[in-house]
Amino acid sequence: MTRLTVIVLCCALYVVPFVRAQSATAAQRAPNRTDVPLQHIVEPPELAGEPGPTPTRPTPASLQFVQSKAISAANPHDIKTLPPAIQEVTELIRLEPTNSDFYLLRAMLSCYVRANSTEILNDVSRSMSLHAQSTSSAYSTLRDHYALKAKIEFESGHFEDSMHDLDAAIKENYEDAKDVFNDGNTKPTTTTQPCVWTQADLGKLEKRFPQDYRPPLYGGLYLSFFYSFDLDSDYSPVLDAFHRAATLNPGSALPEFYIGELYSIGSLGGLMSTKNAECLDWVVPRTPKCLALDEVHRSAVRSLTRAIALDPTFGSAYALRAEAFANLKEYRQAIRDYDKVLELTPQPEAARTAYNDLGLAKVSLGEYQSAAQDFTKSIAIGCKESCGSYDNRADAYIKLHDYPKAIEDISVAIKQNLSSAVFLMNIDQFRRIYPEYDSVPDDVLCERVRALFFPAMKYADFAKQFLIEAKDFKSTVLPDLYLKRGDAYAAMKQTRKANIEYDRVSHGFPESAAYSFVEVNGKRIRKSQ
What pLDDT score was predicted for residue 6? Predict the structure, then answer.
């Protein structure tokens, strides 16, 4: 998949919900059957309440974008498909001249047909200038804008300008910097290609600027992106590139930061690393393999400490070091670093994450009240989608024996998970989980679920999935939440309500039930936690 495909898909994701919003008219929805009202149903908290407002209707340009056969047929490996797509995007820009994403799409398409570089750069610049005022862009940052701009400048021989824009792309989010080089492939590209960065391009920069630390830094980031697709990758070329960058510029914090990232959350010591897979973290005393993982995390701490010494305002370095300390179970040190992240007034999403992780560190120390306050701050910043803080705060409330508040948070967490999971489960599984709706006809129940979780989708489309095509949805998250809510009810001596939650798991997720209950004298008994 090329970067062009990625852009088209992202833009499609941006406009499709709005298109569905326009097409989901009242006449297309299931009838509101007054003979079988829902009012008599005592609904679970996650399904109760009125549906939210229908999303805003799409613009004419958004409609035309989704319906465009020329744009959907655009293929950078088939040049003849690109001019019709460019013409179509130009028409979209005429219809909606303030749409940032349309300019970026035209710039990418134009790049592949080798259009005038000045015109391409003008489109990128226009897209960037409109991005700040956009409320519905497919791009949360300008990373991809800068990366394309840098590649066009590179191909035009403006190498200094190109590196300046690569620096800007990396700065958009230091922790995701390797994604600057994402071209949709899973292996490095060793030959120069149009419109995307390749290993050959970065090698050319390093030869042209042998005393500049940035080309080897880019090279390390490039390789670290593609090596992450193979757990058996040899990371010595990545580390060599970062160490070479550090030698060329001992005053930059970035090489040490990216070395520390590899050892803390990356492929050398992160969750998906081979060393992490070899260690059962809860085993005490530590096994030799766990001790080896601990040493990897200490390497992360050392590198990140050097980065912080070079730049004491580098918030991302504090955040990564805090995670490394947490992995080492040195929670006081982690808390100190999370506090520093927040002191540096990060962007909202970084602050939300810092408060959440600060709360987790305090839970590990038994400071449940303070942890609950941190989770509350995380939620206040923005937790409309599933972010973990409701579930984490529920754990803190359970430790504080505040079970009613825990149940409220678990219910919110369930609703957040259902918002995507329900589209993957069929009505039979849904009914097994929620027998409260046994008396409700399929079409009425289908409409209820659609209105709650997919208000922008046509009833016919949702019904086709929910009533006909979907299979049983396999999950560990949802059954764990139902179990947790059941345990909270059990702690309150509300046995009937606890059993309702346990039934949701036994009937809806039998695989999870096998690990959660034992049968004694014909009775289901909850396994001790």
Answer: 40
Average pLDDT, the chain: 91
Of 1.25.40, 1.10.3470, 3.30.160, 1.10.10, the CATH number of 251-346 is 1.25.40
Phi, psi (rounded to 5 degrees) for 258: -75, -30
**What is the full DSSP assignment across 167-212?**
HHHHHH-GGGGGGGG--S-SS---S--TTS--HHHHHHHHHH-TT-
Q: How far apart are CA 36 and CA 446, in angstroms?
A: 13
- Strand segments (E) across 274-344: none
% the chain with pLDDT above 90: 81
337 by DSSP, 3-state: which? helix
Rounded percentage of the chain residues whose pLDDT exceeds 70: 92
Give the tokens for residue 342: 């927040």
Burial class (CB in 10 A: 0-12, 13-18, 19+), 224: buried
> What length is written for the chain?
529
Angle at 138 between CA 132 and CA 139, to 5 degrees: 55
User: Pairing between strand 523-526 and 517-520?
Assistant: antiparallel
Omega before residue 17 within 30° of 0, cis: no
pTM of the model: 0.89
CA distance 341 to 320: 10
78: which strand partners?
A: 75
Burial class of residue 433, CB neighbours in 10 A (0-12, 13-18, 19+): buried
Map residue 37 onto helix, strand or coil: coil
Give the domain ranges of the chain: 251-346, 422-526
DSSP 8-state class, residue 451: H
pLDDT at 52: 75
Mean pLDDT of 471-500: 96
Kindly state the tokens that stand for 187.
Answer: 């292996």
